[in-house]
Structure prediction request, 434 residues.
Amino acid sequence: MVAKVGLDGHDRGAKVVARALRDAGMEVIYTGLHQTAEEVVTAAVQEDVDVLGVSTLSGAHMTIFPKIFEKLRSLDAEDILVVGGGIIPPVEREALRAQGLSEFWGPGTHTGDIISFLKDAVK
Amino acid sequence: MSDLVSRVRAGDIRAAGRLISLIDRGEDLIEKVLPILFPFTGNAYRIGITGPPGAGKSTLASAICKRYLDAGQSVGILAVDITSPFTGGALLGDRIRMQGLTQDARVFIRSIGNGGVPGGLSRSARDAMRVLEAMGKDVVIVETAGVGQTDVEIAHSVDAVVLVTVPEAGDEVQALKAGILEVADIIVLNKKDRPEADGLGSELQDLVAGQHDTSDWQVPVLRTAARTGDGVDEVVEALILFETQGKRTGGFLTRRKVQAERELRERLRQRMIDRVDEQLGALDFETAVNEVVDGTADIYGVLDDLSSRLM
Prediction:
């Protein structure tokens, strides 16, 4: 599932990644813009996804990701792999990694790298 | 296994999501689960929403869902979308038009790729619907992938078929006539604010007049602008009327019987095919092919010989 959370209208990257993953043979669900963290996690559980990818370009990542992890815990769904893309300063990436963020990709990432990471992580 | 089923029945979305995945992947495990699940199915009103790509199926499904929620009912939605025949991948985007529904705990939405199967549904759709029914949903809405005129699979899986079309489809209406238009119980002309809507509306009405000769249901042609919700109340009223009337006249039960027989026959046929495929694996095609290509045997004789070795 490729998700956009909060007041963040930049979804070019999310759509490019969604399409690349589809072309790599994956089933991709795109949530659309302006979802809450709770909605995104509920949707991910209903869809029984392997990976939840959150695109964030709003700077609200230190609010969004902790909420996502909390909701995953409450739904007993912590086995869903959480990854991200967009803009997060390196020091905050480390903080989020410690909370459960598996991988994060910034601008300039090759979609092939994302695909091979996911294929490796989900067997 | 029965634990998974009891969690589904208790409305556990984690369990329901899992079970639908197992069904969709065709895991052997489900052969044990589905018989335990079955007794808890059959109580929901099954509504199918079908129509060409971009007609507004997801938006209408969402609007219909909201009306049923307002009436105090719970709703399950199964949204089928196209799987790429080339990569096997899929971009399932129906949820984008259903935003806001996820906040309501009475709604469960699941997207599913059609797996390249023609007809508008996936092979797993029928059993996935059963999971939603076992969750205790009062209404189960199935949205097909965008369909053409011959994709009538939905008619064999639901109690009521809503066909959504749009003014731009005007030229295609004649083509629709022979196929999917025949299975519609309710026709919705969406995007009614477009200029061509009036003409197409009356054309559709003419087409369906006299259809369904054997029943007393006259297929209504309703005009909506699903995005604003305009006209959706009338669609839901028609759905409720169709259900009530069908239950009174027996048409509802008759349809379910026809569907059950069809599903049994289909699944039996599939079992036979699987069995034959297994036997085909044991035949010596290499020798047969060489004989045919060398000209030492004719293909018809080889065919008879091979088929005599099948059970």
